[in-house]
Amino acid sequence: MIPRETQPLISNAELEKILISFESEDPSWFHQIRQIAREELKNNGFPDFKTEQGSYTPWDKVLLPLKFSGRPIERFSANTDLLSSLDWNQIESVIGQWPYRIVMLNGQYSIQHSILPSGLEIESIRSVLKNSLNIPIQSMFSKLNLKELGPVLNLACFKDGFYLHFKSNQCLDYPLVMLHIATQAQDYFSCSHNVIVMDEYSSGTILEYFISGNEDQSSLNSEMTQIYLRPQSQLAHAAAYLNGIHKNQWSFQTVEQQSGSSFSSRIFILGGAWTRHEQVIALKQPQASCGLEGLWMTQDHQQAENYTFIDHQAPNCTSREKFKGIANHDSVGVFDGCILVRENSMKTDASQENKNILLSSNAQIYSKPQLKIYADDVKCSHGSATGQLDAEALFYLQSRGIHPEAAQQMLIDGFSREIVDAIPWPEFKTSIWNRVNQFYKGNSK
Length: 445
Fold this sequence. Notes:
This protein is of the alpha/beta class.
């Protein structure tokens, strides 16, 4: 069973120490927003099993690295000798070779290891905050929901990140890889905040990889990305969480879409001790569309959580969701998705689907698909199914001379193939299949 805490996870004294360790020189307008987030943390604390937001998560283990954040973080800077020790051959053996990349090392933007296409505007989010006269960055930060723990914790603590700007009609010829690397050799907490703006008729593909070693030390990485899609812009996104077995990852993504924009996202949680990916999509103008897909595979004591919220605020918008999960041993999987159709959002076309497989009697899966409809003349559907592998199919395969482990692998392969085979980027697809095959090996033990 998931641990249920009765005492405060982080005391007020510990929280104050954490916030002091993340102090930075901020412009006055941002200092005010950050203080609101910090006061929210102090007043409300962290969730526990009594709150809906905290009912699935082992917060005692996840938040433990926060208590180590008082250590001097300069030693983990992207400008240290740590960069020169990175084995790029080993990294490329995992993710493949790509012409463009943005490197985030321990939550900080590493310009010397990033390779960018010409004409693409990118700079440290810290620099943008200090020089925001010509960028509507203030309104972007003011839109954050400071009642959700993910944005509140990130806003209260982040030190760096990047600002990425696609200009009007700018189209990338190859995907832009965002490589998040965790390299610390001790318990730590890192926090980054990113903003992506795509102007009218721009298009691009962003592929994220989260990788780390299998050191014994635990960690927590908080990463938040705000995405703004202007009219007729298109963004294809995918994220592969391939972290080591002691790493905790909390990613929060917000997307604001204007008329005719298109957003697609594929999420693969295939590593780490605990990984939580949250997406909040706002379809704010007509003809906007989004599609979310995901696959998570957990074993041993891993936990994977997917939270989605799609907000249909305008008529004639489309959304699609399809998530699949596989849990073995004592692992836990969570899917919590909500589609909201507001008044006057007629002609909405939305669907949501979640299917899961339990490979062990000790594994746990929580699925909560939701539809909230307040408009007429809409087409909406949702569904969820969780069960074991088909016993008849296993018997049939074994009766044809197939080994029981191979038969089980074939069924798992068929279950996950629908999501993986839809990946349009060959090298990214290869990295996902490689990790899926590793799951097979661990599952057969």
